[in-house]
Design brief:
- The chain is of the alpha/beta class.
- The protein is built from 7 helices and 7 strands; from the N terminus they run H-E-H-E-H-E-H-E-H-E-H-H-E-E.
- The strands form 2 sheets. It has a 5-stranded parallel sheet with strand order 2-1-3-4-5, sandwiched between helices. It has a two-stranded antiparallel ribbon with strand order 6-7.
- The longest helix is centred in the N-terminal third of the chain and has 13 residues.
């Protein structure tokens, strides 16, 4: 064999897992809320942080997902929240959106959200009202998590209510 033929270039190094799942600055985020005022307020916060929010009502999620192709869904859960929590379960169950991170912004008590999402914990959970800094921190963590995964401590986080009361048994935690 002669050295007249160029050697093939070595393959590029494989990117690390965090780099492949982290959304770039300006990530498209779909804000889903029943109230137009909630959608616009949240979109303004995300826009100021450099993201590209798209907004829709729960009834229009299918079309909005196709049009926006979001990196994350921010789902507002009002009281009583049945429609939003059912939508969350459908997003996690559908193969096309199962890996899409969903952050819940809930008006419901933590114990109720824990009971209704124990089989499909969200990538992030915030309780209303929350400061914009908390919202942006949870969105950043959810965008960085691989495949829309819930936090590693999700079971503990989502099954424990505020003030140290177990959401399942109602007993005080020490």
């Amino acid at each position: 064999m002669s050295s007249e033929f160029p050697q093939p270039a070595p393959p590029p190094p494989a990117p690390d897992a965090a780099a492949t799942h982290a959304a770039p600055p300006g990530a498209p985020i779909l804000v889903v809320a029943e109230e137009a005022a909630d959608r616009e307020r949240l979109a303004a916060v995300l826009r100021r942080a450099g993201h590209r929010p798209a907004v829709c009502a729960p009834a229009d999620v299918g079309r909005a997902l196709a049009a926006a192709r979001p990196a994350l869904v921010l789902l507002v859960v009002p009281r009583p929240g049945e429609v939003a929590l059912a939508l969350h379960r459908r997003l996690r169950a559908a193969p096309a959106t199962a890996g899409l991170p969903v952050v819940l912004l809930s008006a419901l008590p933590a114990a109720i959200v824990a009971d209704r999402t124990v089989d499909c914990p969200p990538a992030g959970l915030l309780h209303r009202p929350c400061p914009p800094s908390a919202l942006l921190a949870v969105v950043a963590r959810a965008l960085a998590a691989p495949g829309g995964a819930a936090p590693a401590d999700a079971k503990r986080h989502y099954t424990v209510r505020y003030r140290g009361v177990d959401a399942r048994g109602g007993r005080r935690l020490s």
